[in-house]
Amino acid sequence: MTATTHRTCPLCEATCGLTVTIGPGPEGAGEAIGVRGDAEDPFSRGYICPKGVALGQLHADPDRLRTPLVRRGSSWTEVGWDEAFAEAGRLLAPLLRQHGADSVGVYLGNPVVHNLGLSLYSRTLIQALGTGYRFSASTVDQMPKQVASGLMFGTELSIAVPDLDRTDYLLVLGANPMVSNGSLLTAPDLPGRLRALRRRGGRLVVVDPRRTRTAEIADEYLAIRPGTDALLLAGIARTLVEEGLADPGPRVTPYLNGLAELGDALKPFTPEAVAVATRIPAGTIRRIAGELAAAPSAAVYGRIGTTTTAFGTAASWLVDVVNTLTGNLDRPGGVMWPEPAAGSPTTTGEPGRGRGVRVPGSRRTRVRGLPSVFGEFPAGALAEEIDTPSAADGTRLRGLVTVAGNPVLSTPNSARLGAALASLDAMVSVDAYLNETTRHAHVVLPAASPLARSHYDLVFASFSIRNTAHWSPPSVPLGPGELDESEVLLRLAAAALGGSVTAEQLDDLTASDTARRIAADPSSPAHGRDPGDLLAAVAHRTRQERLLDLMLRGGPYGDGFGAEPEGLSLDALAAAPHGLDLGPLRPRLPGVLRTPSGRVELAPPQLLAEAARLADHLAELDSAPADGLLLIGRRQLRSNNSWMHNVPLLAGGSNRCTLQLHPQDAERLGIDTGEQVRVRSRVGELHAEAEVTDAVMPGVVSLPHGWGHDDPATRLPLAAREPGVNSNLLTDEAPLDVLSGTAVLNGIPVEVVRAAVAAAP
Ligand SMILES: Nc1nc2c(c(=O)[nH]1)N[C@H]1C(S)=C(S)[C@@H](COP(=O)(O)OP(=O)(O)OC[C@H]3O[C@@H](n4cnc5c(=O)[nH]c(N)nc54)[C@H](O)[C@@H]3O)O[C@H]1N2
Ligand SMILES: Nc1nc2c(c(=O)[nH]1)N[C@H]1C(S)=C(S)[C@@H](COP(=O)(O)OP(=O)(O)OC[C@H]3O[C@@H](n4cnc5c(=O)[nH]c(N)nc54)[C@H](O)[C@@H]3O)O[C@H]1N2
Ligand code: SF4
Ligand SMILES: [Mo]
């Protein structure tokens, strides 16, 4: 008997539809799982990448954890769930009691947002712990875009997304969607969609220090000195203003604040001045500005290479400044706001006006006094908050809960973090593997197979180039002894509270909060209803499905619990196994805004201050002597940050953890391809194999992140066969994009020498 189900791939932001078949394995050897693209998915139309195919192997991976583990010294014991939660409670509850809620931190990793149960119940866990020490992968990733969008449009999820399928001109900075499949740009089959843009006569321009696969298929590739995109964008924006090309258009102009202040702030950034710093000629900057203004529609898009720099927030702001000045804000083919079916901050509350965002946040870290951002602290400050007790009273982080995160490979100066984790009084990890981070935990709570959970993309609906809704039921039942992660987080929260509440009670609280929010929301079709009635309508459901049904029914397309009988509900989605297409993005100004002014803020004071800081930086760069080498990262097709190297389909092969450097630099340093080199930065050093290639520009070296699987205390035997090196041994936790607390992971000053030379006496 073979069973077939359809589900959305949870591995990256592209949200491809998959067809999963489960049949008997060869000669009764368990089950055989096949994964292929779902040709009937209206959004992905059968597209799949190697990672999606590998989900079957991930499910079957014998090294994936299936039983809770408790560590005593260096030895692990498999225990039952009751004992694991009891142990977690024994470790965490006394810390919370004796040292206060802020003695225990939480780190949420990237897969949290790809997992419905984790994204909904991690909030419950944090509230139960009561801690202000919340960290996540957002501050090694997209936080600058959230801060800039929050200040301009009113919420941290007010991110304007390129209307990819309709644009005539796409300017990509610091993103490699041919490999990454897109980020803050949810669109299955980005390679196909980029080719389609060119086929319909559109133009693709890529700005990157490395000639990536995306650059290779582009009409034009511009090599840029790392860390200088904000300057380039400021130069483009200034050109638009000075040459009279700035025209936001009659529909958008009435909703703009700050145009004059913006013009003043841009004055220092002449194309000539920024050309020196960026290495992009002034004439090219003027031409690109003119092309963007003249194109029937155009979208500027920046990602990791723009956000994980010291001017990440400034660059993210200037991306949308250029989009606005060229008349491309909120119009088809420009950048637009999706309308998520399960709701988002841009679809709730009073349309067109709101509280805006508070940036910087109100709290400060103990050690460096870094501000919070949307309630969390910079991931780059985690290690120091553990290893540096306050002089006054010795307070520090003594406990940590990690959920779906591997910060020891993913965050800057990770050697320091690894050492800090080893000193914790209590560490509990919810994860699929015993890896470089979770090996430090005292209790590891295993994640079930991604095929055994139901799924809905709550978060990526906010970044999607079409409005869609796709709910996936579990494709396989939970394995023997496995627990759904909603259950894991709720029981962990209850244990940390010392058993004073049950998981069930915490879940009911979460559901009644959700119902109350919906009933109080003036935009909801269920506005004004009795929250008790809403809960009664979904009483047949449990856990994340109960919460999701509430959100769908009370959301922008919802059935309003009967008020709009044709509207969406979980039942309606369950009846559409390939997902529902809710249409192309629609203009949403002014209703989408949640700024206090009810306008788009082009020049909020925090961003004007960033522009001033950027102008100072420009003056510094222009007078500084030539750089040494600058390190950047790169992503690889068959990788997923740090965690899928233990799956046969994705291990080894074409994914090579090499240090790429330009032939000119190689010659100067006497380095050949295949040789071992020593790379050193302010914080650390490592050895890597050199790969000489003119894909990187002179002065730039590139090493992928997510490698370094050589820690003997992990259980990743396949990954360990080709371990690579951890590039975050070199990245530095000291410099930050301060407004967003985001780490600088690109443009790290490094010294490279032949290992043989380094070893010589
Ligand atoms: N130098 C450099 N560093 C970078 C980046 C870079 O470009 N350069 N990129 C940054 C970016 S964009 C990101 S998002 C971060 C990622 O940072 P992290 O999220 O900290 O790291 P990941 O490698 O994604 O690790 C995910 C963890 O979740 C576990 N996991 C996977 N699926 C599940 C699940 O369903 N449930 C549970 N409980 N666990 C699961 C995996 O085993 C792994 O331990 O890395 C950042 N680090
Ligand atoms: N195959 C694969 N896909 C993934 C992931 C993965 O690990 N593997 N990770 C997923 C995650 S968590 C994310 S956040 C996304 C990220 O998605 P992307 O941002 O598209 O991915 P990257 O490949 O990191 O692209 C960043 C690019 O920035 C360039 N760059 C570095 N410094 C600079 C600079 O100063 N200026 C400019 N203009 N460019 C610069 C790099 O050379 C690189 O090409 O990918 C997701 N998809
Ligand atoms: S592109 Fe992303 S969502 Fe699509 S199959 Fe690959 S990993 Fe999954
Ligand atoms: Mo990411």
Structure commentary:
The protein is an alpha/beta fold and 761 residues long. The protein has four domains: 3-60, Phosphorylase Kinase, domain 1, CATH 3.30.200; 82-140 and 394-436 and 451-584, Rossmann fold; 143-351 and 589-610, 3-Layer(aba) Sandwich (Dimethylsulfoxide Reductase, domain 2), CATH 3.40.228.10; 624-759, Barwin-like endoglucanases (Beta Barrel). Helix content is 32%, strand content 16%. The protein contains 26 helices and 30 strands. It has a seven-stranded mixed sheet, with helices on one face. The protein has a six-stranded mixed beta barrel with strand order 23-27-24-26-25-30. A four-stranded parallel sheet has the order 11-10-9-13. A hairpin with a 2-residue loop joins strand 4 and strand 5 (75-78). Helix 9 (229-242) crosses helix 12 (282-294), helix 9 (229-242) runs parallel beside helix 14 and helix 18 (485-496) crosses helix 19. The radius of gyration is 25 Å and the shape is globular. The model has no long low-confidence stretch (mean pLDDT 96). Bound molecules: ligand MGD (2 copies), iron/sulfur cluster and molybdenum atom. Residues 2-63 form the 4Fe-4S Mo/W bis-MGD-type domain. This is Molybdopterin-dependent oxidoreductase. Keywords: 4Fe-4S, Iron, Iron-sulfur, Metal-binding, Oxidoreductase. InterPro entries: Asp_de-COase-like_dom_sf, MoPterin_dinucl-bd_dom, Mopterin_OxRdtase, Mopterin_OxRdtase_4Fe-4S_dom, Mopterin_OxRdtase_prok_CS, Prok_molybdopt-oxidoreductase. Residues 333-360 are annotated as: Disordered.
Ligands bound, unique:
ligand MGD, iron/sulfur cluster, molybdenum atom
Spatial sequence of strands, sheet with the most strands: 5-4-17-16-15-6-7
Ends distance: 67 Å
Biggest β-sheet description: 7 strands, mixed
Form type: globular
Give the helix level as a range of percent: 25-40%
Percentage of residues in strands: 15-25%
Mean pLDDT: 96
Which structural class do you get from the secondary structure elements? alpha/beta
Radius of gyration, CA atoms, in whole angstroms: 25 Å
User: Residue ranges: pLDDT <50 for 5 or more in a row?
Assistant: none
Count all strands and give the number. 30
- Give the total of domains: 4
The number of helical segments is 26
CATH class of the largest domain: Alpha Beta
Stated plainly, the CATH topology of the largest domain is called Rossmann fold
CATH architecture group name of the largest domain: 3-Layer(aba) Sandwich
Domain 4Fe-4S Mo/W bis-MGD-type: 2-63
Region (Disordered): 333-360
Protein name: Molybdopterin-dependent oxidoreductase
InterPro entries: Asp_de-COase-like_dom_sf, MoPterin_dinucl-bd_dom, Mopterin_OxRdtase, Mopterin_OxRdtase_4Fe-4S_dom, Mopterin_OxRdtase_prok_CS, Prok_molybdopt-oxidoreductase
